[in-house]
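User: Earlier you gave me the apo prediction for this protein. Now I'd like the version with pyridoxal-5'-phosphate bound, so I can compare the two side by side. Same sequence as before, with the ligand SMILES added.
Assistant: Got it. Here's the input I'm using:
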Amino acid sequence: MVPFLDLTRQYKRIEDEILTAQRRVLEKGRFILGEEVSAFEVEFAHYCGVRYGVGVGSGTDALFLALKAAGIGEGDEVITVSHSFIAGAIAISMTGAKPVFVDIDPETYTMDPSELEYLLKKRKRRNRVKAILPVHLYGQPAEMKPLMEITNRYHLFLIEDACQAHGAEYQGKKAGSLGLLGCFSFYPTKNLGAYGDGGMVVTDDKKLYDKVRLLRCYGEKKKYEHVLKGGNSRLDEIQAAILRVKLKYLDLWNGERRRKALAYKRMLESTEVVCPVEKEQARHVYHLFVIRTKRRNALQAFLKEKGIGTLIHYPTPIHIQKAYRELGYRKGDLPVTEKHAQEVLSLPFFPELTTEEMGKVNEEIKSFFREGEKG
Ligand SMILES: Cc1ncc(COP(=O)(O)O)c(C=O)c1O
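And here is the structure of the complex with pyridoxal-5'-phosphate:
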Protein backbone atom coordinates (compact mmCIF):
# COMPACT_ATOMS: atom_id res chain seq x y z
CA MET A 1 0.00 0.00 0.00
CA VAL A 2 1.25 3.49 -0.84
CA PRO A 3 -0.82 6.21 0.83
CA PHE A 4 -1.61 9.39 -1.07
CA LEU A 5 -0.61 11.31 2.05
CA ASP A 6 0.33 10.32 5.59
CA LEU A 7 0.52 13.24 8.02
CA THR A 8 1.41 11.04 11.00
CA ARG A 9 4.93 10.51 9.64
CA GLN A 10 5.69 14.22 9.83
CA TYR A 11 4.18 14.44 13.30
CA LYS A 12 6.50 11.69 14.50
CA ARG A 13 9.53 13.71 13.34
CA ILE A 14 8.59 16.70 15.52
CA GLU A 15 6.38 15.15 18.20
CA ASP A 16 8.32 16.40 21.23
CA GLU A 17 8.53 19.96 19.99
CA ILE A 18 4.83 20.03 19.13
CA LEU A 19 3.79 18.72 22.53
CA THR A 20 6.04 21.25 24.27
CA ALA A 21 4.55 24.09 22.21
CA GLN A 22 0.99 22.99 22.95
CA ARG A 23 1.73 22.64 26.64
CA ARG A 24 3.18 26.16 26.69
CA VAL A 25 -0.17 27.54 25.47
CA LEU A 26 -2.27 25.38 27.76
CA GLU A 27 -0.22 26.35 30.80
CA LYS A 28 -0.46 30.05 29.96
CA GLY A 29 -4.24 29.81 29.60
CA ARG A 30 -4.52 32.36 26.77
CA PHE A 31 -6.08 30.92 23.64
CA ILE A 32 -7.11 33.82 21.41
CA LEU A 33 -4.88 36.57 19.95
CA GLY A 34 -2.01 36.26 22.40
CA GLU A 35 1.77 36.07 22.15
CA GLU A 36 1.92 32.98 19.92
CA VAL A 37 -0.21 34.51 17.16
CA SER A 38 1.69 37.82 17.33
CA ALA A 39 5.04 36.05 17.19
CA PHE A 40 3.99 33.76 14.34
CA GLU A 41 2.66 36.74 12.35
CA VAL A 42 6.06 38.42 12.62
CA GLU A 43 7.95 35.21 11.82
CA PHE A 44 5.85 34.19 8.83
CA ALA A 45 5.79 37.73 7.37
CA HIS A 46 9.58 37.82 7.74
CA TYR A 47 9.84 34.43 6.03
CA CYS A 48 7.75 35.78 3.12
CA GLY A 49 9.88 38.93 2.93
CA VAL A 50 7.05 41.34 3.78
CA ARG A 51 6.38 43.69 6.70
CA TYR A 52 3.05 42.46 8.02
CA GLY A 53 1.04 39.31 8.59
CA VAL A 54 -2.45 38.82 10.04
CA GLY A 55 -3.40 35.36 11.32
CA VAL A 56 -6.96 34.45 10.40
CA GLY A 57 -9.30 31.46 10.62
CA SER A 58 -8.61 29.80 7.24
CA GLY A 59 -7.27 30.32 3.74
CA THR A 60 -10.77 31.08 2.52
CA ASP A 61 -11.07 33.81 5.15
CA ALA A 62 -7.62 35.13 4.24
CA LEU A 63 -8.85 35.56 0.64
CA PHE A 64 -12.17 37.07 1.71
CA LEU A 65 -10.62 39.53 4.17
CA ALA A 66 -7.87 40.53 1.70
CA LEU A 67 -10.48 41.28 -0.97
CA LYS A 68 -12.65 43.18 1.55
CA ALA A 69 -9.69 45.20 2.79
CA ALA A 70 -8.90 46.17 -0.83
CA GLY A 71 -12.44 47.52 -1.06
CA ILE A 72 -13.88 44.82 -3.32
CA GLY A 73 -17.65 44.47 -3.04
CA GLU A 74 -21.06 44.56 -4.72
CA GLY A 75 -20.94 45.48 -8.40
CA ASP A 76 -17.22 44.66 -8.79
CA GLU A 77 -15.67 41.85 -10.77
CA VAL A 78 -12.54 39.91 -9.90
CA ILE A 79 -10.72 37.81 -12.48
CA THR A 80 -9.46 34.46 -11.31
CA VAL A 81 -8.86 30.93 -12.60
CA SER A 82 -11.32 28.07 -12.82
CA HIS A 83 -8.72 25.32 -12.52
CA SER A 84 -8.31 25.58 -8.75
CA PHE A 85 -9.98 24.81 -5.46
CA ILE A 86 -13.31 26.65 -5.31
CA ALA A 87 -12.34 28.74 -2.24
CA GLY A 88 -10.99 31.67 -4.33
CA ALA A 89 -14.24 32.07 -6.25
CA ILE A 90 -16.27 31.65 -3.05
CA ALA A 91 -14.23 34.36 -1.32
CA ILE A 92 -14.96 36.72 -4.23
CA SER A 93 -18.67 35.90 -4.00
CA MET A 94 -18.62 36.42 -0.21
CA THR A 95 -17.65 40.09 -0.79
CA GLY A 96 -20.66 40.54 -3.11
CA ALA A 97 -18.42 40.78 -6.19
CA LYS A 98 -18.58 38.49 -9.21
CA PRO A 99 -15.84 36.04 -10.19
CA VAL A 100 -14.81 36.09 -13.84
CA PHE A 101 -12.75 33.15 -15.04
CA VAL A 102 -9.76 33.14 -17.35
CA ASP A 103 -8.00 30.15 -18.87
CA ILE A 104 -4.69 28.74 -17.66
CA ASP A 105 -1.31 28.30 -19.28
CA PRO A 106 -1.08 24.69 -20.52
CA GLU A 107 2.42 24.18 -19.08
CA THR A 108 2.27 25.82 -15.64
CA TYR A 109 -1.49 25.37 -15.01
CA THR A 110 -1.63 28.93 -13.65
CA MET A 111 -3.37 32.09 -14.96
CA ASP A 112 -2.44 32.71 -18.60
CA PRO A 113 -1.32 36.37 -18.92
CA SER A 114 -2.18 36.60 -22.63
CA GLU A 115 -5.69 35.24 -21.95
CA LEU A 116 -6.05 37.78 -19.14
CA GLU A 117 -5.07 40.63 -21.43
CA TYR A 118 -7.45 39.37 -24.12
CA LEU A 119 -10.30 39.18 -21.60
CA LEU A 120 -9.66 42.70 -20.31
CA LYS A 121 -9.59 44.11 -23.85
CA LYS A 122 -12.72 42.25 -24.84
CA ARG A 123 -14.83 43.18 -21.84
CA LYS A 124 -17.05 46.10 -22.66
CA ARG A 125 -17.71 46.91 -19.03
CA ARG A 126 -14.18 46.27 -17.96
CA ASN A 127 -14.35 49.19 -15.52
CA ARG A 128 -16.16 46.75 -13.22
CA VAL A 129 -13.03 44.62 -12.97
CA LYS A 130 -11.23 45.74 -9.82
CA ALA A 131 -8.75 42.99 -9.10
CA ILE A 132 -7.15 39.78 -10.29
CA LEU A 133 -6.64 36.74 -8.12
CA PRO A 134 -4.06 34.35 -9.59
CA VAL A 135 -3.41 31.04 -7.83
CA HIS A 136 0.06 29.55 -7.33
CA LEU A 137 -1.39 26.14 -7.99
CA TYR A 138 0.19 22.91 -6.71
CA GLY A 139 3.13 25.04 -5.45
CA GLN A 140 3.92 26.44 -8.91
CA PRO A 141 4.22 30.25 -8.92
CA ALA A 142 2.00 32.00 -11.47
CA GLU A 143 3.69 34.10 -14.17
CA MET A 144 3.84 37.16 -11.94
CA LYS A 145 5.91 39.54 -14.12
CA PRO A 146 3.43 39.78 -17.01
CA LEU A 147 0.50 39.61 -14.58
CA MET A 148 1.92 42.56 -12.63
CA GLU A 149 2.51 44.53 -15.82
CA ILE A 150 -1.09 43.98 -16.91
CA THR A 151 -2.55 44.89 -13.53
CA ASN A 152 -0.49 48.11 -13.47
CA ARG A 153 -1.62 49.01 -16.97
CA TYR A 154 -5.29 48.45 -16.15
CA HIS A 155 -5.03 49.89 -12.61
CA LEU A 156 -6.18 46.69 -10.93
CA PHE A 157 -5.30 45.18 -7.58
CA LEU A 158 -3.32 41.97 -7.61
CA ILE A 159 -4.09 39.62 -4.73
CA GLU A 160 -2.25 36.29 -4.62
CA ASP A 161 -3.80 32.98 -3.66
CA ALA A 162 -0.66 31.42 -2.20
CA CYS A 163 -2.61 28.80 -0.23
CA GLN A 164 -0.66 25.98 -1.92
CA ALA A 165 2.67 27.78 -2.21
CA HIS A 166 4.38 28.42 1.14
CA GLY A 167 8.01 29.09 0.30
CA ALA A 168 7.61 29.06 -3.50
CA GLU A 169 9.58 31.78 -5.27
CA TYR A 170 9.28 33.87 -8.39
CA GLN A 171 12.38 35.79 -9.50
CA GLY A 172 13.83 35.28 -6.03
CA LYS A 173 10.77 36.65 -4.20
CA LYS A 174 8.44 34.55 -2.10
CA ALA A 175 4.94 33.74 -3.32
CA GLY A 176 2.54 36.01 -1.46
CA SER A 177 5.00 38.93 -1.41
CA LEU A 178 4.59 40.07 -5.02
CA GLY A 179 1.03 41.36 -5.09
CA LEU A 180 -0.75 43.92 -2.94
CA LEU A 181 -1.79 41.18 -0.53
CA GLY A 182 -0.89 37.47 -0.29
CA CYS A 183 -3.20 34.82 1.15
CA PHE A 184 -2.17 31.57 2.80
CA SER A 185 -3.99 28.53 4.17
CA PHE A 186 -2.59 26.41 6.97
CA TYR A 187 -5.01 23.56 6.32
CA PRO A 188 -3.30 20.40 7.68
CA THR A 189 -2.27 19.02 4.28
CA LYS A 190 -0.50 22.20 3.13
CA ASN A 191 3.30 22.51 2.92
CA LEU A 192 2.98 24.47 6.17
CA GLY A 193 -0.05 22.92 7.82
CA ALA A 194 -1.61 23.37 11.25
CA TYR A 195 -3.46 20.66 13.18
CA GLY A 196 -6.76 22.32 12.37
CA ASP A 197 -7.84 25.32 10.29
CA GLY A 198 -5.84 28.49 9.93
CA GLY A 199 -4.74 31.14 7.44
CA MET A 200 -2.79 34.36 7.02
CA VAL A 201 -2.87 37.56 4.97
CA VAL A 202 0.54 39.13 4.32
CA THR A 203 1.23 42.59 2.93
CA ASP A 204 3.69 45.47 2.90
CA ASP A 205 0.88 48.01 3.09
CA LYS A 206 0.29 49.32 6.62
CA LYS A 207 -3.24 50.60 5.89
CA LEU A 208 -4.34 47.27 4.47
CA TYR A 209 -2.72 45.47 7.38
CA ASP A 210 -4.67 47.59 9.85
CA LYS A 211 -7.88 46.98 7.91
CA VAL A 212 -7.46 43.19 7.83
CA ARG A 213 -6.75 43.23 11.58
CA LEU A 214 -9.98 45.09 12.20
CA LEU A 215 -11.97 42.86 9.85
CA ARG A 216 -10.80 39.65 11.52
CA CYS A 217 -12.03 40.73 14.95
CA TYR A 218 -15.34 42.63 14.97
CA GLY A 219 -13.84 45.87 13.68
CA GLU A 220 -12.57 46.37 17.20
CA LYS A 221 -9.97 49.12 17.55
CA LYS A 222 -9.83 49.08 21.33
CA LYS A 223 -11.74 46.85 23.74
CA TYR A 224 -15.43 47.29 22.87
CA GLU A 225 -14.77 50.17 20.48
CA HIS A 226 -15.93 49.01 17.03
CA VAL A 227 -15.01 51.16 14.03
CA LEU A 228 -16.34 48.85 11.31
CA LYS A 229 -18.45 45.73 10.89
CA GLY A 230 -15.81 43.05 11.07
CA GLY A 231 -16.46 39.38 11.76
CA ASN A 232 -14.66 36.74 13.76
CA SER A 233 -11.83 34.98 11.96
CA ARG A 234 -8.78 34.46 14.14
CA LEU A 235 -5.89 32.05 14.02
CA ASP A 236 -5.84 30.51 17.50
CA GLU A 237 -2.92 30.33 19.92
CA ILE A 238 -2.50 26.55 19.84
CA GLN A 239 -2.36 26.47 16.04
CA ALA A 240 0.06 29.43 15.99
CA ALA A 241 2.35 27.66 18.48
CA ILE A 242 2.30 24.52 16.28
CA LEU A 243 2.97 26.55 13.14
CA ARG A 244 5.93 28.30 14.79
CA VAL A 245 7.55 24.90 15.31
CA LYS A 246 6.76 23.79 11.77
CA LEU A 247 7.93 27.02 10.11
CA LYS A 248 11.50 26.20 11.20
CA TYR A 249 11.30 23.05 9.07
CA LEU A 250 9.51 24.46 6.03
CA ASP A 251 12.63 24.96 3.91
CA LEU A 252 13.92 21.50 4.80
CA TRP A 253 10.58 19.88 3.91
CA ASN A 254 10.25 21.91 0.70
CA GLY A 255 13.77 20.78 -0.22
CA GLU A 256 12.71 17.16 0.32
CA ARG A 257 9.63 17.73 -1.84
CA ARG A 258 11.79 19.21 -4.61
CA ARG A 259 14.23 16.30 -4.53
CA LYS A 260 11.39 13.77 -4.62
CA ALA A 261 9.72 15.62 -7.48
CA LEU A 262 12.96 15.44 -9.44
CA ALA A 263 13.23 11.72 -8.71
CA TYR A 264 9.63 11.10 -9.90
CA LYS A 265 10.34 13.11 -13.06
CA ARG A 266 13.44 11.05 -13.82
CA MET A 267 11.59 7.78 -13.21
CA LEU A 268 8.64 8.75 -15.37
CA GLU A 269 10.69 10.34 -18.18
CA SER A 270 10.34 7.33 -20.42
CA THR A 271 6.55 7.10 -20.07
CA GLU A 272 3.84 9.02 -21.84
CA VAL A 273 2.75 10.91 -18.73
CA VAL A 274 3.34 14.66 -18.63
CA CYS A 275 5.22 15.74 -15.51
CA PRO A 276 5.16 19.21 -13.89
CA VAL A 277 7.59 21.76 -15.33
CA GLU A 278 9.73 24.24 -13.48
CA LYS A 279 10.23 27.59 -15.19
CA GLU A 280 13.60 29.30 -15.04
CA GLN A 281 12.35 32.19 -12.90
CA ALA A 282 10.31 30.01 -10.53
CA ARG A 283 10.98 27.82 -7.52
CA HIS A 284 8.21 25.25 -7.41
CA VAL A 285 7.49 23.77 -3.96
CA TYR A 286 5.39 20.81 -5.13
CA HIS A 287 2.47 21.00 -2.75
CA LEU A 288 1.20 18.24 -5.04
CA PHE A 289 2.92 16.16 -7.71
CA VAL A 290 0.44 16.25 -10.55
CA ILE A 291 0.90 14.32 -13.77
CA ARG A 292 -1.27 14.36 -16.89
CA THR A 293 -2.39 11.56 -19.17
CA LYS A 294 -5.29 11.06 -21.56
CA ARG A 295 -5.89 7.70 -19.85
CA ARG A 296 -6.23 9.28 -16.40
CA ASN A 297 -9.36 7.47 -15.19
CA ALA A 298 -8.07 4.05 -16.21
CA LEU A 299 -4.68 4.74 -14.65
CA GLN A 300 -6.28 5.88 -11.41
CA ALA A 301 -8.42 2.73 -11.23
CA PHE A 302 -5.38 0.55 -11.99
CA LEU A 303 -3.29 2.19 -9.26
CA LYS A 304 -6.14 1.86 -6.78
CA GLU A 305 -6.25 -1.86 -7.46
CA LYS A 306 -2.53 -2.02 -6.71
CA GLY A 307 -3.01 -0.24 -3.38
CA ILE A 308 -1.71 3.16 -4.52
CA GLY A 309 -3.64 6.23 -3.42
CA THR A 310 -4.17 9.06 -5.89
CA LEU A 311 -6.49 12.09 -6.08
CA ILE A 312 -7.75 14.44 -8.77
CA HIS A 313 -7.13 18.15 -8.24
CA TYR A 314 -9.69 19.16 -9.56
CA PRO A 315 -12.17 17.03 -11.51
CA THR A 316 -14.76 19.76 -12.27
CA PRO A 317 -13.62 23.29 -13.13
CA ILE A 318 -15.29 26.02 -11.05
CA HIS A 319 -17.00 27.72 -14.02
CA ILE A 320 -19.09 24.61 -14.69
CA GLN A 321 -19.85 23.78 -11.06
CA LYS A 322 -23.53 23.90 -10.13
CA ALA A 323 -22.77 26.55 -7.50
CA TYR A 324 -21.82 28.98 -10.30
CA ARG A 325 -24.56 28.16 -12.76
CA GLU A 326 -25.90 31.71 -12.58
CA LEU A 327 -22.75 33.04 -14.27
CA GLY A 328 -23.82 31.38 -17.52
CA TYR A 329 -20.58 29.63 -18.46
CA ARG A 330 -20.77 26.63 -20.75
CA LYS A 331 -18.57 23.65 -21.46
CA GLY A 332 -15.96 24.74 -23.99
CA ASP A 333 -15.58 28.27 -22.60
CA LEU A 334 -12.18 27.53 -21.05
CA PRO A 335 -10.63 24.81 -23.23
CA VAL A 336 -7.26 24.37 -21.50
CA THR A 337 -8.87 24.27 -18.04
CA GLU A 338 -11.44 21.71 -19.18
CA LYS A 339 -8.87 19.51 -20.95
CA HIS A 340 -6.61 19.49 -17.90
CA ALA A 341 -9.49 18.63 -15.58
CA GLN A 342 -9.91 15.43 -17.61
CA GLU A 343 -6.22 14.55 -17.52
CA VAL A 344 -4.67 15.52 -14.18
CA LEU A 345 -3.79 12.97 -11.53
CA SER A 346 -2.04 13.68 -8.22
CA LEU A 347 0.40 10.94 -7.21
CA PRO A 348 1.32 9.99 -3.62
CA PHE A 349 3.51 12.87 -2.49
CA PHE A 350 4.83 14.24 0.82
CA PRO A 351 8.29 14.81 2.31
CA GLU A 352 8.30 11.48 4.18
CA LEU A 353 7.35 9.32 1.17
CA THR A 354 10.02 6.63 0.92
CA THR A 355 12.19 5.73 -2.06
CA GLU A 356 10.62 2.25 -2.03
CA GLU A 357 7.12 3.71 -2.18
CA MET A 358 8.07 5.99 -5.06
CA GLY A 359 9.66 3.02 -6.82
CA LYS A 360 6.43 1.05 -6.47
CA VAL A 361 4.37 3.94 -7.92
CA ASN A 362 6.80 4.20 -10.84
CA GLU A 363 6.72 0.45 -11.48
CA GLU A 364 2.94 0.27 -11.48
CA ILE A 365 2.57 3.27 -13.77
CA LYS A 366 4.97 1.63 -16.21
CA SER A 367 3.18 -1.68 -15.98
CA PHE A 368 -0.14 0.10 -16.70
CA PHE A 369 1.19 1.57 -19.93
CA ARG A 370 2.88 -1.73 -20.92
CA GLU A 371 -0.43 -3.57 -20.49
CA GLY A 372 -2.11 -0.85 -22.53
CA GLU A 373 0.32 -1.46 -25.40
CA LYS A 374 -0.37 -5.20 -25.32
CA GLY A 375 -4.13 -4.79 -24.94
C1 LIG B 1 -5.74 27.20 -3.89
C2 LIG B 1 -6.48 27.24 -2.59
N1 LIG B 1 -7.12 28.37 -2.24
C3 LIG B 1 -7.79 28.47 -1.08
C4 LIG B 1 -7.87 27.42 -0.20
C5 LIG B 1 -8.69 27.55 1.03
O1 LIG B 1 -8.00 27.34 2.20
P1 LIG B 1 -8.77 26.80 3.51
O2 LIG B 1 -9.12 25.38 3.30
O3 LIG B 1 -7.75 26.99 4.59
O4 LIG B 1 -9.95 27.68 3.71
C6 LIG B 1 -7.19 26.22 -0.51
C7 LIG B 1 -7.13 25.06 0.39
O5 LIG B 1 -7.95 24.44 0.87
C8 LIG B 1 -6.51 26.13 -1.74
O6 LIG B 1 -5.89 25.00 -2.09
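For your comparison, keep in mind: The first helix runs from residue 7 to 28.
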